[in-house]
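Continuing the batch. This is chain 6 of the set; chains 1 through 5 are on the previous pages. Same settings as before, nothing changed between runs. Recording input and output for traceability.
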Amino acid sequence: QVQLVESGGGLVQPGGSLRLSCAASRSIFSTYTMGWYRQAPGKQRELVAHIFNGGLTNYADSVKGRFTISRDNAKNTVYLQMNSLKPEDTAVYYCNAYWETRIGSRIYNYWGQGTQVTVSS
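Output for chain 6:
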């Protein structure tokens, strides 16, 4: 089992910055893909960014150039640095850990409880 705990959300003005943190209960980054997702009221949960176990990253088009996903293996923590924030970034942000095994096609999928990000003047 893996527990994920998000932190760092809050209220910020447009153009401001926040850094979200996701702490995992054990060392998993060599195996799992880590991701940040978000969900705004009335909308489906959407991908924000992924970092794969080999270190490759990908981002939603809406956040490219503004957000950066990274990890610290020693701290079992993944981060999302958010710059130049816009009102449309307002959402609950969720941390995710995903692993699909090669043998037997077994899937492991874990979610944090979420942290609120509000961008408003």
